[in-house]
Queue: 2 jobs
Job 1
Amino acid sequence: MSVHAIQRDAFINEITEAALQDRDVYFISADMGAVALDAYREKLPDQFVFSGISEQNTIDVAAGLAASGKRVYTYAMASFITARCYEPLRYMVGMMSLPITVLGVGVGLGYEDAGPAHNTTEDIAFMRTLHGIEILSPADVESSVEIARLTYRDPGFRYIRLERPKLPEVYGGRFAEALPRGMCTLAEGDETCIVASGFMLHRALEVARELKRDGLRIGVIDLFRSTPIDGSVLLAELSPYRNVVTLEEQALAAGMGSAVVEVLADEGEHKNVLRLGLPGRYLFENGGRDYILSQCGLGVAQIADRVRAFAATESA
Amino acid sequence: MGSSYADLEQKAAWIRHQVFEMYVAAKRGHLVSSLSLTEILVTLYYGGFYRYERGNPSPDRRDRLVVSKGHGATTLYPILADIGFIEASEFDRYAQADGILRMHADPSIPGIDSVGGSLGQGLGLAAGFALAAKRDGIDRRAFAILGDAELYEGSIWETAIFAAHNELDNLVAVVDRNRLAILGETETLLRLEPLEEKFRSFGWAAVTVDGHSFEALHGAFEETLSRPARVPTVVIADTIKGRGISFMENDHEWHTRFPNADQIERARTELSAYTLRAEG
């Protein structure tokens, strides 16, 4: 897989390879496209289903196919296949324990200026309440490919949060090893670390680089599996740090940062925690992803300032 | 086929009796909704339309049936016992902590293909079953039992478009058209008619029959399943909610009301008479 690919094409190419060998692999698109999907449709018309902009029907049909022994991938814009389908996912997939992979494209503010209906900024909060689900947020192509392989190798109820833009590669061949743990330390620090995933992981790495120039060593942990979080693994990864910053492109209510705090509380572990994320309102601003994030205090320099202040206060 | 209609009448009477006794003993369930679809399920299971192997609930050996109006699935329990999928002793444990039978059925019960309790999603599930069978070249039918008031759910019509385009002629929807929602009559509250035309305009074959007449139901399924029409079919079965217990028939309030001791005795007497009529 070319590192120049974007996540969705990398993922679909991987599934195409599997589908060419296995006629039980099915791809259902609710009118969502991709370059790689065009190739899949051409090669495997009998393993492709077009369901149109009917997200509920998409999930219900997927359930019928999965209950018939198919390995089903549903593909749609992240904001709609999640919020619109919370009930079909809960009822048809969760309660029936069906192994369906739900691919959501364009998480966070990935649709830039399209407005709050397209923003997928509360999905971790409500999707992680679905029993039995695994939520995975790849930050690069390598992790997308490894996650695709996992979904085929070990089918389960999963929600894969795919980023829309091309993002830099961060793993350098290490992701397969990290995958079972659900998280991976990408930069080591002294007292403070940032826990992030997906698009915001790259921002966390930038912040760490910026603070390094000030002589502050900040750890960065990719929490690519926000659900479920293995408590013992999280404690091990966080053990070098007294201060934990969670950074997400999500409204703070019940999001990834909340999930981290829940695990710390349940494990009886005391850390100083700063949760950074989006405000609890619908974001109508124009100006693109970077601009909107900066309006929400999540520009790189702004995050660096907040982390610096947090580290200083908590270390004083 | 095997069964004459007199046999089917007896089955229906026995099923109504069992459903009623489970409901009374547990003080839980949706009696009137279960009574209205009795003849529909009896025709499917004993008329040779839903195909299965007695005593073997393995999914590989049978068609699929989704009671999308999940509150009516209680009617299936006596049938599942009669065909050897579950033990009849489970009737006494219906909705009890140690029993496998629930108010809404789910796949933990042998022979049940879907979870029940939320409306509007069973048709899509059945369409998925039908599509998988067609693409695999397997001769398998998928039935979806829908309530008429369930047709207000938009997801039903999403699937209606999908099933017609995919030529799912192994998909049969049966609408239990008892014309009652919880708050009253569908046509007064929020009009569903013209229902046949709605389905036809979506590309389905549609037929309306007397949902308590074995002859009519038999004829409808026979025609539907013998004709290679490359379209899904809906059988709109005109039914009476509460059928078999006169004072419950066509009264929407019985969806949520539980009978008192006198009413229970009256209902028992009527259901026994029903059984005797069927036997006579």
Job 2
Amino acid sequence: MSKAQEFEPKIVAYVCNWCTYLGADLAGTARLEYPPNVRIIRLPCTGRIDFNLIIKALEVGADGVLVSGCHPGDCHYTAGNYHARRRWILFRELLDTLGIDLRRIQFTWISAAEGRKWQQVVTEFTDQTRKLGPYKELYATGPFPDVPAPETASPGVKSFAAESELREVCGKLLAEGTVKVVIGYGARGPVVVTRAEDAERLVWNNRCFSNLTAYLKRKEIKSLGKAAVIVKPCDEKSLVELEKEAQFERKDAHVIGMACEGVDQPKCAHCTARTPRFADVTLGVEAGPEPQTSPSPNRFAALMAMPPAERMAFWTEEFNRCVKCYACRQVCPMCYCERCIVDKNRPIAIDPAPSTKGNFAWHIARAFHLAGRCVGCGECSRACPAGIDLALLNISLHIAAQKNFGYEAGIDPKAEPVIGSYTLHDTEAFIR
Amino acid sequence: MSEIISQSVLRGLAAEWIAGGKSVAGPARVKPDLVLYRTLRSGDDLLLEGFQRPSNSIKDFLFPKAEKLYGYKIHGNSIELIENDSPEPAQVIIAARPCDAAALPILDHVFNWDFHDEFYNRRRAATTVVTLACSAHDENCFCTSVGLDPGSERGSDAILFALGSGQYEVRCATEKGHALFDGKTEKSERTGKAIAGPEKRFDAKAVRAFVTTHFEDPFWNEHALTCIGCGTCAFSCPACHCFDIVDAGPAAGNARVKTWDSCQFSTFTAHASGHNPRPVQATRQRQRILHKFAIYPEKFGEILCTGCGNCARNCPVGLGVLSVATEINHG
Amino acid sequence: MDNVYKPDLMEVTRIRQETPDVKSVSLRFLDSERARNFSFRVGQFGIFSAFGYGESTFNICSSSNWKDHIEFCFRKVGRVTEALWKIEEKDVVGFRGPYGNGYPMEAWKGRDLIFLGGGIAMPPIRCAVWYALENRADYGEITVVYGARTVADLVFLDELDEWSKAERVRIIRCVDPGGETPDWKGEIGFVPHVFERAQVAAKDPVVLVIGPPIMIKNTLPILDKMGVKPASVYTSIENRMKCGIGKCGRCNVGPIYVCKEGPVLTMEQLQGLPADY
């Protein structure tokens, strides 16, 4: 017996209760034979299949994952499969960026009447997976070429002209009681100023990295009363998304927008937002017309130029340094859940240990929860004490949202969010 | 008379140790702006100059971020525990900073007062720490404020002092240190000297006096307003040692694992019932300073901080022990 | 290697459902030598585990005089307790311990004992009551006031009846107003008030009070009026723990590691500590 014949792939099939499960059942009652390699897990709807489950199946040793639901238009819950389709489109891009072998994940629509299609899909997917062999490359290390590191900040401090005006404006806002607190930048990092005389502590220079909108969610700050928040044009984008998600109302905060010359961060090289658009007051010299498009950073291009196995090796090495300090989550303006999925333990969706699997699971969850929501402030990469360039994952999803749905987070306040909406025409090229 | 060694011989020694089956860890450049202590693949990986200090600490090699305590298999209603008794491989940590090495005696206390944590002890026994005295300090350094200095030998088995032109004086402090360097060095008349430490930034006794008497104080809330509640400070601290014990499910092979934890996380003290004795970030920041300057000293007689400044260097929002302690000290 | 984190394996010998969400479980060591050598002090705790789910800390609520088994009692409230809820007799759970200081039962000899417990706080009182009853001659008058929100939330009710048959023992049961049933024969009211009404005449008693913070807070002035010194009032602190052996850094209240210098503290000790519990 040859080696190839000895290997029998394990395949996990997540199927919807209403169509595919019945289709599989029909295949059985019709005595249609298909390989016994598939383990069926029945869920109410493809719309309910958490992407974590797909990863989990591979993690625990599946060689292939089949995901199947009702055909478009047939969903028992009207639109679950449309939502699922939209998520899969983005999710596949993320997995591809991570170097996960997309041939091992098959999406398909199989109705309750299609016992024969179930038979065919399972047979073919099993054969294909058998040919691919065991999924040994998952989270495997190996050689990979250098990915350029993000350009680093220059060490010097360069104050911008609007600094004194900023202090004056904030001092006045506090003195007149328009706001009770100003969230701004100090010499060492963010500062929260509550007294007019302390407005002198505020700075505006090339070291003003933080996206201060992340503080708006904090109870301790909310309890102080109405806040003024200082935003760079790039940070301002998070307000657009937060407002869409009903996490922020313009009346809650006084937005002080700073026309920006760049703060020595990797993102600044590709900036398309130099002038605040929605601020209550804008300070500094407006930087003139904005570039319309931004090329994706060359470090992302370098990553995607590698074959998947090298990408996987790259991320394995990166994630192995992760200590799960969750700085990436804590600095993120869009990570506002009261209780993060990693802190929930009934059930545990993500291995809490900072192991290779646990770290992959965490970073996949973090990145995908930000799909179409991340405004590219790059704080996750900057905050990471292990130097993991997490923003690459967000960039991947940003590009995917643009490419597939023409959506760019933080730009159009009226545009429907990518996740949570769908069209009847979303691409199906990858679905059988 | 002193013993000296050249950088090339030192790298050669490191290569020899690696070839001999020892695990050798030391500073290495991971990215253009990131230096970490990591397991070295070759003597050339070792980075000896051109950076202030690694972003992590050498505790990674004695108290790793995740350690399997035991595995278990569930057979029906019986349980089989699986322990790993294989001996710890010998380990050398080279070019550790004095502020890293000094944290080991601190960790020794915690892992051995009464109950003995053999996971830590076995690694500790198998580890030789070769420290490199500092030749620079930056605005985040404050070893002198917690009773140490750039040439402290505390926790080191051997300490190197740069003599310039790629030469180091070697001073062995323990048998383990001698075992590494005896016969490998040359005699010389030159002796090394650490640089003068950073100016003393605060009085640790005054900090302790403040924290023990100001449990409920607006200071904590004001100070913690910008803290985002991540674990970066704790995880990059050479002396922080809080941990969690978690069951890593089937995906990780059914094991109970000790993982780093941080008092800055909101879940750290949260009860299953929902009650949390430390409900806001201010109480968590307070705990960190209390533990370092009062709780630990009261129990073990020294400060739970070596002044390395990693908390401040790594903090995404520019906080850290130094800024809190100076603020307390100078009002 | 001497692995301090490795649990003993214990077989579940009996499970009793005390209330809709509270169960008590009896365990025996699978290793007979460990069973022979095992001893503990009442008031100590153990770290119990459901394999695959994790570890959780509970008081050992059986008396230290019972040699063949230990008991613990839990409320179904989190991941581990939900897993423990599903265990059956003959299943195996993990146990580490005994940890903590326990009650100074020797020092209490010759004194009157007052036990005040609220809700799920009965188990850590129960072990001490049994111990005192089993060494009846060593202790003076014993008073137990035990209350819960409703009748259905009272645990170890049958044992309360048993205790009341002993000499010089007064048992007072109560439920919060509105928590009574038509056939409820006990008192109605909160533990501190019921205790005050009961006019317990004890001279220089030892008081063990365990329950929600509000109950403890309202009890202290009453004890003060009775002339009970804070050094004679004990409680058992419930802080979240992971290691139980003074390492993981989770349970400190000021300089005290609850897992080592606690969980049993006097009010005098507590008054000197920050309110970090």
